Amino acid sequence: MSKKLYVGNLSFQTTESDITAAFEQCGTVESVSIITDRDTGRSKGFGFVVMGEEAGADKAIAALNGSQLGGRTLTVNEAKPMVKRDFGGGGGSRHGGGGRRDRY
Fold first, then answer.
1. Which of 6, 17, 60, 70 could disulfide-pair with 11, CB 3.0 to 4.6 Å?
2. Full-model pTM
3. CA–CA distance from 58 to each of 35, 47, 75 (Å)?
């Protein structure tokens, strides 16, 4: 069964093929995606690697977490499911409290 890994602290120059080459030493790499800024297209400095088997993923975490790639120390761990952030905070209007002041 495949396993998704989080790869953090990537150099902005690191490419998906750089990551693939590093992770292939540990097992089959199914996919690599570097997360980029929607507006600028620039790397956000992290990405995800899907390893073909769990053993390869565990080996990659052990071998590559704390290792150097592109002059940066990588953070590699099991990807956690994305938590939907709730930016809400109570409904209501943005006009503040305060009563109405009528002029007579």
1. 70
2. 0.78
3. 22, 17, 14
Dist. CA 62–CA 76, nearest whole Å: 8
Task: Decide which of 3.40.50.300, 3.30.70.330, 3.10.310.30, 1.20.1560.10 is the CATH code for 3-78.
Answer: 3.30.70.330
Residue ranges of alpha helices (H) inside 5-102 are 16-24, 54-64
Using one digit for the tens of pLDDT, what is the confidence trace for 24-82? 999 999 999 999 999 999 999 999 999 999 999 999 999 999 999 999 999 999 998 87
